[in-house]
Amino acid sequence: MIIPKRKTDLNVHVRNLFADGRPIVLVHGVSASADYWGKVIELLPRDRPVISYDLRGHGTSGKLTPPWTVDDFAKDHVELLDALGLDDVDLVGCSLGGIISQAITLNYPERVHRLVLVSSVAGRTPEESERSLARLHRIENNTIEEIAEESVVRWHTPEYIEEHPEVREKVLAQLRHLDRESYAASYRVLATTDHVDRLGEIAVPTVAITGEGDVGSTARMSELIAERVQNGRAVIVEGAKHSLLSETPEVVARVITEHFATGGEQ
């Protein structure tokens, strides 16, 4: 933790803020927190500043007040950069954080130098949109236990669940900690936001990475993102689902490190 230059009620985690090099900023997904980047952060270059934070309504950051939009999340992000005295950064967003990172890059292009989107969403089909809204309905109406069980299966491969049976209790504890109103409002942003028609405005070098078995952030979506942005490529991780940060952190860290080290030229 650090004391920022200006006040913010977002919980911020910082490594090597004053190191040389452009900071890497990590934006997590819905129902998660900055801690979910832990395995990836350990594998990132030690000579770069690395910043992660709890989105509003998550972790120990302040609650959000519905109605809430992706642009509100993007504004929070830019205000945090201002509080830390940062200009442009290398940006990584996962899941909801990927949608937020798209919005940041579209709304504040001068604040993003290079971009990595992990398990992100764009170009949902009508059927995929219907499934997302159905899950939103369950989140708004079902018990935490029911939501947690569905999340475990949705996010993780069967092999990982078998090897890490504690993941069920971990996800349940994670969801119990959340403010239900903030959780539902955040998932509504995830379920209803789609920047597919604006992706062509993204000029910064971009990598979109997802698991081949991810049912919500599909391989097709990452390939579409890579095709639509001005300078993009896709990475599809074989045998993986949604939780790349937990199951394949070394792959995510390698993609981030290589993309940001090379300048992202394709």
From TrEMBL:
<dbReference type="InterPro" id="IPR000073">
    <property type="entry name" value="AB_hydrolase_1"/>
</dbReference>
<dbReference type="GO" id="GO:0047372">
    <property type="term" value="F:monoacylglycerol lipase activity"/>
</dbReference>
<dbReference type="GO" id="GO:0016020">
    <property type="term" value="C:membrane"/>
</dbReference>
<dbReference type="Pfam" id="PF00561">
    <property type="entry name" value="Abhydrolase_1"/>
</dbReference>
<dbReference type="InterPro" id="IPR050266">
    <property type="entry name" value="AB_hydrolase_sf"/>
</dbReference>
<feature type="domain" description="AB hydrolase-1">
    <location>
        <begin position="23"/>
        <end position="145"/>
    </location>
</feature>
<keyword id="KW-0378">Hydrolase</keyword>
<dbReference type="GO" id="GO:0046464">
    <property type="term" value="P:acylglycerol catabolic process"/>
</dbReference>
<protein>
    <submittedName>
        <fullName>(E)-2-((N-methylformamido)methylene)succinate hydrolase</fullName>
        <ecNumber>3.5.1.-</ecNumber>
    </submittedName>
</protein>
